[in-house]
Amino acid sequence: MKKFKKHTPEQIVGKLDQAAKLKAEGKTNADVARDLKVSEATLHRWQKTYGQMDRAGARELKALRDENDRFKKLLGEAELDKAAYKELAEGKF
Fold this sequence. Notes:
Blueprint: H1 9-24, H2 29-36, H3 40-50, H4 55-90
Helix pairs in contact: 1-2, 1-3, 1-4
């Protein structure tokens, strides 16, 4: 079974730049995906997600997603604490 490689947003934007150059040369989506060593579905998803983004924008997007994940984790922990305090206040041990 093939191991999956996780690309960074900067790498994805770089590969999308390569894809644009290859398409300008007249290659098909299948040829472009083969040259980039990704599937056509992955290439399409990258184009939908990152579109015409530059490397700085991709880096900022990754930072915002990481920050959002951290905030979601903190919120989840706060909700658990709140539920525990509520149970203590009601006398349910």
